């Protein structure tokens, strides 16, 4: 399983760009950016999830799962986050809760 870190850039009101950093051969000094993911949480995005019947907790679980699946697609393997996921989820939570 690949170990990665997520690094959120300065968030916008409707999205945040997140760098995906991995460490070849487990070496922390050789961290490299593999890709960038844009997590969008505009009102229209959240309203679509609400129309599916999702409450706040389910929307947050959706975003966590979505991040996992998108990063997995780009890395072509399962991964575990060693840092940064909670920071990203806090940004998402702060924006999403304004729609509930």
Describe the structure.
With 100 residues, the protein is an alpha+beta fold. It is 41% helix and 29% strand. It has a four-stranded mixed sheet, with helices on one face. Helix 2 crosses helix 3.
Write the layout of secondary structure elements.
Elements: E1 2-8, E2 15-22, E3 32-40, H1 43-51, H2 56-75, E4 79-83, H3 85-96
Parallel strand pairs: 1-4
Antiparallel strand pairs: 1-2, 2-3
Helix pairs in contact: 2-3
The proportion of residues forming helix, as a percent range, comes to 40-55%
Lateral strand order in the biggest sheet: 3-2-1-4
| Sheet of most strands | 4 strands, mixed
Strands, total number: 4
Mean pLDDT: 94
SS field, number of helical segments: 3
Number of domains: 1
Radius of gyration from CA coordinates: 14 Å
Shape: elongated
Q: Provide the β-strand percentage band.
A: 25-35%
First CA to last CA: what distance? Answer: 36 Å
The low-pLDDT segments are none
- Helix/strand/pairing class, anyone? alpha+beta
